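Working notes for the structural subgroup meeting. M.R. asked for a predicted model of this chain before we commit to crystallization trials. I am recording the input and output together here so anyone reviewing the notebook later can reproduce the run.

Input as submitted:
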Amino acid sequence: MDLDLTHLAGSTIAFDLDGTLVESAPDLVATLNLLLAQEGVGPLPLSQARDFIGQGARSLITKGFEASGAEIAEPRLSMLFERFIAHYSEHIADESHVFPGVTDALDVLEEAGAKLVVCTNKRTDLSVALLEALGIAQRFAAIVGPDAALAAKPDARHLLVAIEAAGGSPDRALMVGDSAADAGAARAAGVPLILVSFGYTPIPASELAADALIDHFDQLPAACARLL
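Returned structure, recorded in token form:
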């Protein structure tokens, strides 16, 4: 039976970036571990540090050092942040890649008439650079980091600004993410929520009360159609 996607026409689908569209943890954690090494602290395993991703680089650095038993306060944190950004910017897609099925799912959603937008707690310039390096930046009507929205998820304003930037309306939109930040933004904005089960979150996605939970992007179009 063919999937009916007619309800997607004119809708806006907002995507989180790290842990949702892109497996970016290898490059983020590699940069974090470089900072730790420079500060005389041992590295963190990827399996542990990946769940520190999602609230921006400052949060990642803070959580990374805390997990290693070394707390970092200002102004040291700001110095480490600048070093993190400088290195990460040069290695933003060394190992990062889109998750399986992402490109095909975006094709299906676009062909159905949906508008696509990125709503991420990653800084806008870094988000654009990563998506350009992976060859999918042009797929999105807008790419909105917290600096472009003057708020960060889970604040509803971030998601609402992203939807507006894509020319959409909250009453015909939904959020696709992986974490509590995405869940909080969607709930606060009053839009349906789809979570992926494979992202970056210390709280399992199955415990975040999503309207739909998917294990692979080939499940996304059907979930979007059902919720819209």
